[in-house]
Design a protein that fits this description.
By secondary structure, this protein is an alpha/beta fold. Helix content is 34%, strand content 22%. Keywords: Flavoprotein, FMN.
């Protein structure tokens, strides 16, 4: 089974990256830093179809297992990760793209999060879990790492 970890954070080498590296080694997974890509917000008129989202999404379809990794920012995923999830709607809006979207039905997903708390808040994991399950994906696991608050370093 092939795995990829799709992650986002305001600090490319921070706690989330540390958790991603450890899990990637364990799973022998590829990693992809979402913030390195140009992904616009969802737009009803699809004026942003020239950005990186569609090619990135198609690349993920080559994996059996997708891990979505993000720090917990105010009970939510990072803005870039949220934009990624919102943009999946591009494939729902266009009948010619829906067959590609349906490929998610054969995929597994996991959630990797981190914060100063022992567990991720339910609203954080539920957004990812409910979206992925709506798309027909199967949840493998949810992993949370607690890191101490280090202030404004």
């Amino acid at each position: 089974m092939t795995s990829i970890i799709l992650y986002s954070s305001s600090n490319k080498q921070g706690n989330t990256a540390q958790s991603v590296r450890a899990l990637a080694q364990q799973l022998q997974a590829d990693t992809l830093f979402l913030d390195d890509y140009d992904i616009g917000d969802y737009c009803y008129n699809h004026t942003n179809r020239g950005d990186d989202f569609r090619s990135l999404f198609r690349a993920l379809l080559n994996y059996d297992h997708i891990v979505f990794a993000s720090p917990v920012y105010w009970y939510a995923v990072t803005p870039r990760m949220k934009a990624f999830f919102d943009r999946i709607t591009d494939f729902m809006d266009d009948e010619t793209l829906r067959p590609e979207l349906r490929k998610l039905r054969t995929k597994e997903f996991s959630i990797l999060s981190n914060s100063i708390n022992e567990t991720a808040p339910a609203c954080f994991t539920e957004m990812i879990q409910k979206t992925c399950e709506y798309l027909g994906m199967t949840c493998r696991e949810s992993i949370h790492h607690q890191y101490p608050y280090e202030g404004d370093k």
